[in-house]
Amino acid sequence: MNIDFKTLAEKYQTPYYVYDFDHITKQYEELKSSFRARKSLIAYAVKANSNLSVIKHLADLGAGADCVSIGEVKRALKVGIPSYKIIFSGVGKSDDEITQALELDILMINVESAAELNRVEDIAKNLGKIARISIRVNPNIDPKTHPYISTGLHENKFGVDIDTAKRMYIQCKNSEFLEPTGIHCHIGSQLTQLQPIKDAVKIVAELVKNLKAIKIDLSFMDVGGGLGIIYDNEKLIDTYEYSQSILDAMFGLDVTVVCEPGRFIVGNSGVFVTKVLYEKVNGNKRFVIVDGAMNDLIRPALYNAYHKIEVLNDNKNLSDCNLVGPVCESGDFFAKNIQLPQTNHNDLVAIYSAGAYGFTMASNYNTRGRVAEIAVLNGQDRLIRRRETFEDLIALEEEFIK
Ligand code: LLP
């Protein structure tokens, strides 16, 4: 990544997120080409980074979209992802969202419970439409990742077990308003081991074969997202081995393979850049206080996630400290007990691997405006979301105080 953080800070102020769009292209192409011998759809998981320019960049490369709200579906459509490449997942879709998804004629609704299938059937019937259905199977597999981002065990709220899925497919087959179209599983995020994915895909492929035997022919097999990235020194899953093991499990099945990477596409492309406000020592604990905070990047506070951090000065004099923000919470930290050089007011601090679940999880806590987002493509920088102003933050409340 060849990005001049200082120049960007002068131009756009801090804090900001910057995304290397060339890296996004590289990640997309690497995954897409690993499935080359096969019909495939890379449906980018919009939740990872839903900036319109990011989605548009991926749309131009040919990506589809995996969405978890009708808002995400609309973002994808807005930047030109065709409806036939859009999947709508999520354990709690509202009637209104289901109605809109049917009206927008997306590729498939990924249904996560028997009760939801009944709702979709009723709504499709009322609209006089046929709903293309995919069912999210929960294969009861431990993905060996952080418990908060693990989803493929029965103790997690996602998907349905195999037997329920079978019954639901039979309901689809027997309904005038439902069309069994796909199958889906996603066992968790930031996966660094291939075996749990292989185990899950095998279970799903087996079900596809069993369904075929009872004349339910699915067209899409969606293996979810979850490919891990480098935050620290993780050993990653090789994309070629990943795709080959999926294709092996699908041997003999004439289905299009779908995967839904989010973090893999955008995670390592993004850096959160903040600047030092002050240093202080409480007792014998050193704190470096920056202008960014947990409301901008919540992963350290929420998951105790590690992000590589670099202070952009030449000082070699390292000592232990906590890197913290201005928010009024003890949980407002980017790193605890980290060795950082002595800093000066306005030194920049880069927090890496922040392209996924960074900005999208940001909030306005403490009436802090969300930060600017910048894209760098071919060495050119471009503002892709301006910093929020105080006026932006109060706009929806103002009329009620008159
Ligand atoms: N498909 C489904 C159904 C998902 O639930 C997710 C992520 C993905 C695809 C994309 O997963 P990825 O390829 O990005 O791992 N906020 C957490 C991650 C939550 C992931 C939620 N689901 C974090 O910051 O680590």
Describe the structure.
The protein is of the alpha/beta class. The chain folds into two domains: 5-16 and 268-394, Lyase, Ornithine Decarboxylase, Chain A, domain 1 (Beta Barrel); 35-261, Alanine racemase (TIM Barrel, Alpha-Beta Barrel). 30% of the residues lie in helices and 24% in strands. The protein contains twelve helices and 17 strands. The strands form two sheets. Strands 1, 10, 11, 12, 13, 14, 15, 16 and 17 form a nine-stranded mixed beta sheet that branches. An eight-stranded parallel β-barrel has the order 2-3-4-5-6-7-8-9, surrounded by seven helices. Strand 7 (178-184), helix 8 (194-213) and strand 8 form a beta-alpha-beta unit. Bound molecules: ligand LLP. Specifically catalyzes the decarboxylation of meso-diaminopimelate (meso-DAP) to L-lysine. Residues 22-267 form the Orn/DAP/Arg decarboxylase 2 N-terminal domain. It is an enzyme of class 4 (lyase). Keywords: Amino-acid biosynthesis, Decarboxylase, Lyase, Lysine biosynthesis, Pyridoxal phosphate.
Order of helices and strands, N to C?
HEHEHEHEHEHEHEHEHEHEEHEEEEEEH
Ligand roster: ligand LLP
End-to-end Cα distance, whole Å, is 50 Å
- The unreliable regions are none
CATH-defined architecture of the largest domain = Alpha-Beta Barrel
**How many distinct domains?**
2
CATH superfamily of the largest domain: Alanine racemase
Could you list some keywords that capture this structure?
alpha/beta; 17 strands; globular; binds ligand LLP
Give a quick rundown of the structure.
This protein is of the alpha/beta class and 402 residues long. 30% of the residues lie in helices and 24% in strands.
